[in-house]
Amino acid sequence: MTHSVEVDRRNLLQQIQERAIVHGRVTLSSGKEADWYLDLRRITLSGLAAPMVGRVMLNLTRDLAYDAVGGLTMGADPVATAMLHAAAADDDGPALDAFVVRKQGKSHGLQQRVEGPSIQGRRVLIVEDTSTTGGSALDAVTAAREAGAEVVAVAVIADRATGAAERIQADGGVPYLWAYGPNDLGIS
Ligand SMILES: O=P(O)(O)OC[C@H]1O[C@H](OP(=O)(O)OP(=O)(O)O)[C@H](O)[C@@H]1O
Ligand SMILES: O=C(O)c1cc(=O)[nH]c(=O)[nH]1
């Protein structure tokens, strides 16, 4: 089956608006306070929406050359695997591996921080479900570089327009792409 990028983008946005936006006072990962929250796990772990996430994120990053995708567990994990499956479903496109960056290195087993097929010497994309300060994505950028990868960019489903773009570009030295911003989501 072929999928229209515009239809996917529209349908995914509708899913996010209907199911993931939560209004109310919340404390964020960074310790900052906010008046709204995006629970994108309701989207990336949805059987209906996850395939759209994969296709929209592949399309968003179509001009970049990379062959593995991952980020800081756990928000990034279903984004990366959605992209892996979307790439696998496309007979014309190249295969894509996924990887998981642990929040801390493991102290037993192989004691790795980055799990999955080796990313050493490979061009990789760092993903997130959403970014606020960009700190989680930057943590993953650093871990991927320490594992020997070349990071080509960071891409997120939804950006909150709270400084992540500037920080990732300045401190990470890579482009930052997002599929939807607050205006798209209807939040200001
Ligand atoms: O840009 P930042 O300020 O780093 O915030 C964004 C991060 O916050 C959320 O994860 P959270 O830390 O809640 O952990 P989780 O992925 O384990 O749910 C989200 O999935 C991002 O990883
Ligand atoms: O900054 C965060 O922690 C954060 C913001 C948001 O909207 N959604 C989320 O899962 N985390």
Automatic annotation (TrEMBL):
Binding site for 5-phospho-alpha-D-ribose 1-diphosphate: R102, K103, K106, H108, E128, D129, T130, S131, T132, T133, G134, G135, S136
Co-factor(s): Mg(2+)
One Pfam family, short name: Pribosyltran
Record flagged with keyword Glycosyltransferase: yes
Pathway: Pyrimidine metabolism; UMP biosynthesis via de novo pathway; UMP from orotate: step 1/2
Keywords (A to Z) from UniProt: Glycosyltransferase, Magnesium, Pyrimidine biosynthesis, Transferase
EC number: 2.4.2.10
Enzyme class: transferase
Residues the record lists as binding orotate: T132, R160
BP term (GO), one: pyrimidine nucleobase biosynthetic process
Presence of keyword Transferase: yes
Residues annotated as domain Phosphoribosyltransferase: 67-167
Molecular function terms, GO-annotated: magnesium ion binding; orotate phosphoribosyltransferase activity
Catalytic activity: orotidine 5'-phosphate + diphosphate = orotate + 5-phospho-alpha-D-ribose 1-diphosphate
HAMAP family: PyrE (MF_01208)
Assembly behavior: Homodimer.
NCBIfam families: pyrE
Functional note: Catalyzes the transfer of a ribosyl phosphate group from 5-phosphoribose 1-diphosphate to orotate, leading to the formation of orotidine monophosphate (OMP).
Family, similarity comment: Belongs to the purine/pyrimidine phosphoribosyltransferase family. PyrE subfamily.
Name of this protein: Orotate phosphoribosyltransferase
Species annotation: Allobranchiibius huperziae
